[in-house]
Amino acid sequence: MAAKSDNSGNQADAQEQMVAGSAWMTAGSIFSRILGAVYIIPWNIWFGAFYLQGNALYGKGYNIYSFFLIAAIAGVPSAIAKQVAHYNALNEYGISVRLYKRGLEIAIMTGVAIAALMYFGAPLFTGGDDNLIPVLHSLAWAILIIPTMSLTRGYFQGFQQMAPSAISQFVEQLVRVLYMLLSAYVIMRVLKGNWITAVSQSTLAAAMGALGGLLVLGVYYWRRRRHFRSLVRNSNNQMVVPASQLYREIIVQAVPFVVLGAGITIFQLIDQYTFAPIMNMAGNYSAAYLNDLFALFGVNANKLIMITISLASALAVTVVPLLSEAYTRGDKKSISDQLSNAFLMFEFVMIPSALGMSAVARPLNLVFYGRSHEALAASILAFSSYLSILLGLYTVASALMQGISQNKRAVRYFIVGTIVKFIVQWPLVYFFGAFGPLLATGCGFLVTCYLIVHSLDVQFGINYAQIAKKTNGILLTSIGTYALAKFITFLGSFSGSEGRVMNFLIVAVAALVGGYFYVYVVLKSRLADAIMGPRVAGLRRRLHIH
């Protein structure tokens, strides 16, 4: 009986730990993504007629950069978080410290090599657009810094310390956005300069932000150095792990993280290099028009839906170390419970966020991007909002597989999904234009997600009966939220205003009313308690919901 009680306590602690970690990572990701989206409005205004072309160039450069960055980081931060959690669970903190130092060596070496490849090999990756060369040159500098920063975040996460990662992420984004806006204003408005130069400086902001984020982590590490040293002194110190084995563990764990972590980016690169050739087969379009279309579905909509997808990403990062600990203990019941909790927490935040964004797609698009291709842009954003649920599910599901050391299997499933994407890409783009890449992405990730979830169920058992009842509650409440937000958007359309201020007010009112409705219902029905734990009771008291 005592054992049972102790086991229940451990499960409760694990859930509390997951919720606390998710709160920090979610807050960091959300604020970072919001900052990363808000800059669009002044950036758009200052670029004027060159905005869509500039945004397309920015997006193409960032897609290539994202792939190189993931290769430079090589999955080491997530692998470090997973392995540090593994050794910490065994009370071998000294090995965790050595693991971090060895990982740092790998990160610095790969960062230098990949940055050099991207800088000097830039002409090879442009796809015929020479304007990309200075953009890739400026982005290469960030790759020198970010691997060290990301690795240190992974080290903190392995200790279940999510605050340093979240705060450094926010500071990184804040510095990046400030540099972007300042450089864009000076070049485009003060100096009346070239828009390509302005885009190049906007991408150089990634390096400036990385310096800020790394500085924050350094301060945190310095303040907590005594705590880390005391953990090492009180370790079991019974295991002897040679340096060669530490390197091998990092690399074996890291390589699958490269493929899976780059999943969404790989799909975006497929779109980047195939969209224009396929569209040129379908009709006679100018390069400028195809760039505009690419900006609409591949950059503009993507920036906004990544705000909601970041919720799933934050959850994924939190789950991996916790699952790794349960897997190390061989606790199959705990793994099953955490898998169910992870999916429910994902649904709890992702579904209402995605439906809510789709409901306000038109005014939201007008706020951020103005009236260029207005109707098409709003339709693409609405469709992308639904698609974001699938992208978020992939992010969480692949992280869960990594947490239980099913890396190779997860990579195989992703490869299957990528093959599906390639097969359907040509006909869908040919017949559906700008919606084609989004449909093809949905098909590919749907297959991958199905294979991953089915595999997890076969191995550990997912309590679908328990999940289904709560999912129904989330779905019904989310649909109610969507209906309210859509109704307010409909009423707002009678204002006849196409200006940013009026449409911002429409979005704000719809978000507040729809958001409050969702929060009220999940708290009133106790659905939030069942998913997030007893902590939400305090929120219910503060909102006077009984």
Automatic annotation (TrEMBL):
Record has Transmembrane as a keyword: yes
Membrane topology category: Multi-pass membrane protein
Entry GO CC: plasma membrane
Highest taxon of the lineage: Bacteria
TM segment ranges: 34-52, 64-85, 106-126, 132-152, 173-191, 203-222, 250-270, 304-323, 343-364, 376-398, 410-428, 434-453, 474-495, 501-523
InterPro entries noted in UniProt: PG_synth_SpoVB, Poly_Biosynth_Transport, Polysacc_synth
Cellular location(s): Cell membrane
Record's keyword terms, sorted: Cell membrane, Membrane, Transmembrane, Transmembrane helix
Keyword Transcription regulation: no
Matches recorded under Pfam families: Polysacc_synt
Protein name (database record): Transporter
Organism from which the protein derives: Levilactobacillus koreensis
